[in-house]
Amino acid sequence: MMAQPATAQPATPATIDPQTVVADDPVLAARPENRVWKKFRSHKSAMLGGILVGFFVLMAVFAPLLPIPDPTATDWGAVRKAPSAAHWLGTDEIGRDVLSRLVWGARASLMAGVVSVGIAVAFGVPLGILAGYFGGWTDGIISRCTEALLAVPFLILAIALAAFLGPSLTNAMIAIGLSATPVFVRLTRGQVISVKAEDYVEGAHAIGLSTPKILRRYVFPNILPPVLVQATLTIATAIIAEASLSFLGLGQQPPAPSWGSMLNTAKNFLAQAPWMAMWPGIAIFLVVLGFNLLGDGLRDALDPREH
Amino acid sequence: MLNFLLRRVAIALPTVILISIFVFGLQKLLPGDPVLAMAGEERDPEVIEFLREKYRLNDPVPVQYLAWVKGALTGDLGISLRTNQPVTELIGQKLPVTIQLAVMALIFAMVIGIPAGILSAVKKGTVTDYVANVVALSGLSIPNFWLGIMLILLVAVNWQLLPASGYVPPSEDLWLSIKTMLMPAFVLGTALAATLMRHTRSAMLGVLKSDYVRTARAKGLAERRVILRHAFRNALTPIVTLTALLFGELIAGAVLTEQIFTIPGFGKLVVDAVFNRDYAVVQGIVLVTALGFIVMNILADAAYFVLNPRLRKQ
């Protein structure tokens, strides 16, 4: 006798609405990740932020597939042309398509935001854990160094580092990442100090768990939410910082497109070609607003006092 | 008060020492041998050796550092490669321009941010609150150099209401000086106004829930009086502290604002120095900015001490 696996399937997953399951099942509804997601989804501005960020991420990822001209291709017959059917957002001072440069520029901005925050998290979080968990002279040294770096304004520090490292997008990302590191050290340190005092960490000590295990199992998961919120908000700051450095000529180098360098060129042609300045600025504003809204929404959703 | 200040200065000392090590270390990040760049194309070994001796590059790094600190303590931050002027003198010339810009920006930020924050807190959950929050978040998200460019386009180029760029010292023509600085100050003040608005709102929301505000209302005081005399006065402490701490943001923002409006201040000095590889000037600026931030921190603590009677009694 042949088995009939197809009809023997117990359920039809496609017909089940996961939201209904979460709402109906008290156990699932009480799970923190579901609660956070539900809260986040009800936060309209956070959803708007998510949509904005998602739009720019898709634009950056699928840039090579879009039917737009090469962002570096010049056309001396179409210099500083106003927006038209051929060039939706107009052309720049050497006839390059502004829309194309805007789309490809999203790659530089988003990459700078994510990579520099990645650098800041990669250095800042372990240092913050070391300072907060071990205290004593380890904390003393790390905290004093953090305070010293925090005393130098973020952008001045990034400019100085970018100047000494040399102008390029990679160096700008390193400069921004290193400049943002102290914020993560300080945040992580504070979180670790408060988590360390919790009963479950003391209990883990009492049953003889090793320090790396305690850090991995109990400390790290508990400090993650505020770090995630800070990372989202810092991406916004990093994108503005990259645009600022590129605007000053210390970031992405021509002819590669970046929103900051587009604005740098555009300021020389304000009266003749205002569209050159308008679009990159709007793009920076929208993506930064997106990350800020997303960060604010995440903060509200992850804040235990809000539940 | 004096004891309090002395204690704060003592706490800040290790930070100052670390900053000096960091600023000195910046030049070690430079790729290649700086002397080779200074020696010109011929690279005469005698000239190279002379330069090494002159800049003490043959000494061990700690000795170089101590010599640099000794110079810095006596106001000698080196000579600008571009202008041949002492760095301290250059900074002294440019700083007043940036201070004028920063003060005007701060006035803009306070005039917009604080009333908006109060209004937003008092009208929590209403359309006013929502609009104020949206405007504040937009203010934080807008790149100030782009805002500057757009304002030049609209106000200076299209409407011709204000000068597009430049700087007039107040001693020369006060009104023209203020007029020239209006747009840059507004641009620089926007993000700060947004920050101040959000903090004022948060501080006011905390205070408005307190018992003494409820008591003031129960006594039948006019709402305006309750808000301004009772609530705002108590919410003022964190706002004043924050305002002092915004100094760093002001200086950093000034770098771009001065670049756009061609203002010959501190920010323009750093950008010019970066492009001319005038590293002594970059180092000097980082050091002075960091020290300025520490001084503002101490002043913020002092303001907190003065404004908070409980702290004074301790």
Description:
The complex is a heterodimer of chains A (307) and B (314). Helices cover 71% and strands 0% of the residues of chain A. With 307 residues, chain A is mainly alpha-helical. In chain A, helix 5 (44-61) packs across helix 13 (275-302). The longest helix of chain A has 38 residues, at 211-248. Residues 1-23 of chain A have low confidence and may be disordered. Chain B is an all-alpha fold. Chain B has a single domain (87-312), classed as Orthogonal Bundle (MetI-like fold), CATH 1.10.3720. Chain B is 77% helix and 0% strand. Chain B is built from 14 helices and no strands. Chain B has helices spanning 2-26, 34-38, 45-54, 61-73, 87-122, 127-141, 144-158, 174-208, 211-218, 223-245, 247-260, 266-275, 279-307, 309-313. The longest helix of chain B has 36 residues, at 87-122. The termini of chain B are close together. The mean pLDDT of chain B is 86. Classes of the chains: A mainly alpha (307), B mainly alpha (314). At the A-B interface, helix 7, helix 8, helix 11 and helix 13 of A face helix 1, helix 6, helix 7, helix 11 and helix 12 of B.
Task: Give a quick rundown of the structure.
The complex is a heterodimer of chains A (307) and B (314). Chain A is an all-alpha fold and 307 residues long. Chain A has 13 helices and no strands.
Present the secondary structure layout.
The complex is a heterodimer of chains A (307) and B (314).
Chain A: H1 5-8, H2 18-24, H3 26-30, H4 32-42, H5 44-61, H6 98-134, H7 136-150, H8 154-165, H9 169-196, H10 199-206, H11 211-248, H12 259-266, H13 275-302
Helix pairs in contact in A: 4-13, 5-6, 5-13, 6-7, 6-9, 6-11, 6-13, 7-9, 8-9, 9-11, 10-11, 11-12, 11-13, 12-13
Chain B: H1 2-26, H2 34-38, H3 45-54, H4 61-73, H5 87-122, H6 127-141, H7 144-158, H8 174-208, H9 211-218, H10 223-245, H11 247-260, H12 266-275, H13 279-307, H14 309-313
Features:
heterodimer, A: 307 residues, mainly alpha, 13 helices, B: 314 residues, MetI-like fold
